[in-house]
């Protein structure tokens, strides 16, 4: 009987020692209450505490007015469809080209238009030169070109150039020089352009823009 009681006391003592050891390990390693882990990397802790930078605000678009030229003009994005060698693709490309033409006139930046236009486009060269000659003290309100209708024609000539008639209308415009109103243009009548483009290496390039019918 004595041995039995002695063995029970020994087992209880061993259990107490194991429990104390477990508590000590828990205290050293951190617990579920969020105690710090001394083995954690200082770099990791610093990274976790670094605040996420706030994205810079996009400058807001300001159209041209009597107070000055347009500012932060949004650049038109080419739709995915404009990469397809289909009539729908060519039409989407033509619409994008004229959107970039309007962008060039409003912002003074012709680089995006040049990027999708052949250097052989003579009419385009006239546009570029006009923009380059324009001084910062000169600007225009309105005057954008609006597409009214696009032909369903989709056939290439012997040189692989597709010709697409495009009906346009130019909006009225007011021109300013040195902050003073200089002249105004009434809305134009309907005109008909012949938009010519070539498809190579998975994309369209404007080759030239002729005038079938003027205002």
From TrEMBL:
Chain intervals for the UniProt region annotation (Disordered)? 32-83
Pfam families in UniProt:
DUF6318 (PF19843)
Q: Which organism is it from?
A: Arthrobacter mangrovi
Record's compositionally biased regions (Low complexity): 36-66
Question: What InterPro entries does the record point to?
Answer: DUF6318 (IPR046281)
UniProt KW Signal keyword:
yes
The residues covered by the DUF6318 domain are 60-208
- What PROSITE patterns does the database record attribute to this sequence? PROKAR_LIPOPROTEIN
Q: What is this protein called?
A: DUF6318 domain-containing protein
Leader sequence segment = 1-29
Source taxon at top rank: Bacteria
Q: Which UniProt keywords apply?
A: Signal
């Amino acid at each position: 009987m004595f041995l039995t009681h002695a063995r029970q006391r020994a087992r209880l003592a061993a259990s107490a020692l194991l429990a104390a050891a477990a508590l000590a390990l828990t205290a050293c390693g951190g617990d579920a209450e969020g105690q710090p882990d001394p083995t954690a990397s200082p770099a990791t802790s610093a990274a976790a505490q670094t605040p996420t930078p706030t994205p810079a605000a996009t400058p807001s678009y300001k159209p041209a007015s009597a107070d000055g030229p347009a500012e932060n003009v949004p650049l038109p994005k080419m739709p995915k469809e404009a990469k397809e060698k289909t009539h729908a693709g060519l039409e989407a490309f033509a619409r994008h080209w004229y959107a970039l033409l309007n962008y060039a006139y409003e912002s003074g930046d012709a680089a995006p238009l040049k990027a999708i236009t052949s250097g052989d486009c003579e009419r385009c060269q006239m546009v570029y030169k006009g923009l380059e000659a324009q001084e910062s003290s000169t600007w225009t309100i309105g005057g954008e070109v609006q597409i009214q209708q696009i032909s369903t024609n989709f056939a290439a000539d012997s040189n692989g150039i597709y010709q697409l008639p495009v009906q346009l209308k130019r909006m009225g415009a007011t021109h300013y020089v040195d902050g003073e109103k200089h002249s105004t243009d009434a809305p134009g009548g309907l005109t008909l352009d012949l938009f010519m483009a070539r498809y190579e290496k998975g994309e369209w390039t404007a080759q030239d823009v002729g005038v079938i019918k003027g205002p």
